[in-house]
Structure formats: structure tokens, C-alpha cells
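Encode chain A's predicted structure.
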Amino acid sequence: MTANRTRILALLAAILGAAALRLVPHPPNFAPIAAMALFGGAYLGRRSLAFVAPLAAMLLSDLLLGFHPYMWATYLGVALIVLMGWAVQERIAPVRVGVAAVASSLLFFLLTNFAVWLQSGFYPPTLAGLTACYVAAIPFFQNTLAGDLFYAALLFGGFAVMERLIPAIREPARFVPVATSPSVR
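Encoded structure for chain A:
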């Protein structure tokens, strides 16, 4: 098996493992969804795979957990967080990952609660209703943020440790041509 193939399989295993953690009992909103998408966007080199892997992992776990009317917002959020992962991939560092995890928590909060306001009928279709929906969701945001930071640290940190310990999953060195100066005669 080539080093690149081994790396991709290790990355996909990490994403599927994160999705499986959705099935384990956990506090409300303390889930690996955003971290999984951020990780996929940052590490999976092929753009299509970066989207397909976390979305497919979500679908597999949703088949067991059940579906809900706001899934479009959840899946859109996952896709947008993959894009955030692309911004991190140039230089994966703890601060950049932490900032991206916080940003993904905010994005997910705004998007999914907008969907609840739009579709649920619990809130009037006014700006006051939207505000009330967001305010009612604030207590859940702390778990979202804590989960995203925890799982981002677990995925990114765990994979960094694995790269050091298992040479076969390290990213292959990129060939960078060295500029040569014309010879002087």
C-alpha cells in the first residue's frame, strides 16, 4: 500500500471514528460534528473527498440516530465547515485550529437555530422571533463550543501524534524545485 493511500485511510478512519462518537451517550450538543468537518477539510487533499467523507459519516450515523426536519441546515453547516478547514490546511497550528473551531461553533449555532426559527413554528416569523430563538439556544452553545474545541484537539492533536509515531501516514514530502542561478563563465 502506498504511503498516500495509508494516510488517506488513516484520515478516513479518524473521521468515521468521530462520527461513531455521535452514537455514544453524550451531553446535548457535545458532539464531534464540526471538528470532523474541519479535520476533513484541513487534511483530505482531494476537495471532493473533503466533503464526501464527513457528510457520508454524518449520514451513516443519522441512519441510526434518526432524521429531523432541520437536517438541511446541519449538512450545510458541515459543508461550510469543510471550507473553513481548507483555510487551516496551509499551516495547521493549535491557535489556527482553535480559532477555526470557535468560528465553526458560531456558524453551526447561527445556521441550525435559524433553521429552527424558520421551520419549527415555535417562534413568530419576525426579527423578535429570530432573536428569541437564538437567545433560547444560548445555553446549548456552551456544549457546542466545548465539544468542538475538545474534538478538534482530539482529532488534530491525535493525528499529529500518529504522524510522528507512524511514518507510513506522514504526508509525503513535496518536491520544491530550487531556483538555480545562471552559471558564470
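The longest helix spans residues 127-165.
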